[in-house]
């Protein structure tokens, strides 16, 4: 079991973010008798997934929906699958846009490098 500080350090996020995720019902850590949060390995795996979803621009409301569906159990499997497939479509679109931008940048960089090679610096 990990403390909130240990998890924050391990995942390179703030304790504020962890408290926010708890407030938004994205994660529910266990509590000690003194009320201190404790996170298991499964919590950490879940948080890593949440962080990746955020990095790929999944809206918080969809992450909350997924978390809620997960807690409801097997009966929500099709809904969770649909939600993830929709997000995967979004990610694929992001990849396409990034590839197009990368190609534009390559051409611009090449043009600048060619210009600098041909320029007389004397």
UniProtKB/TrEMBL annotation:
One of its GO terms (molecular function) is DNA binding. Keywords: DNA-binding. SUPFAM superfamilies: Putative DNA-binding domain. Residues 1-69 form the HTH merR-type domain. CDD domains: HTH_YyaN. InterPro entries: DNA-bd_dom_put_sf (IPR009061), MerR-type_HTH_dom (IPR000551), MerR_fam (IPR047057). It comes from the Bacteria. This is DNA-binding transcriptional MerR regulator. It comes from Fictibacillus halophilus.
């Amino acid at each position: 079991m990990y403390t909130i500080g240990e998890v924050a350090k391990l995942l390179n996020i703030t304790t504020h973010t962890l408290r926010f995720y708890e407030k938004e019902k994205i994660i529910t850590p266990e509590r000690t008798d003194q009320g201190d949060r404790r996170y298991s390995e499964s919590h950490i795996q879940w948080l890593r997934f949440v962080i990746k979803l955020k990095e790929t621009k999944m809206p918080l409301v969809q992450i909350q929906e997924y978390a809620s569906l997960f807690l409801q159990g097997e009966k929500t499997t099709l809904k969770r699958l649909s939600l993830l497939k929709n997000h995967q479509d979004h990610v694929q679109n992001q990849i396409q846009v990034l590839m197009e931008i990368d190609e534009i940048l390559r051409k611009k960089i090449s043009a600048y490098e060619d210009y600098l090679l041909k320029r007389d610096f004397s």
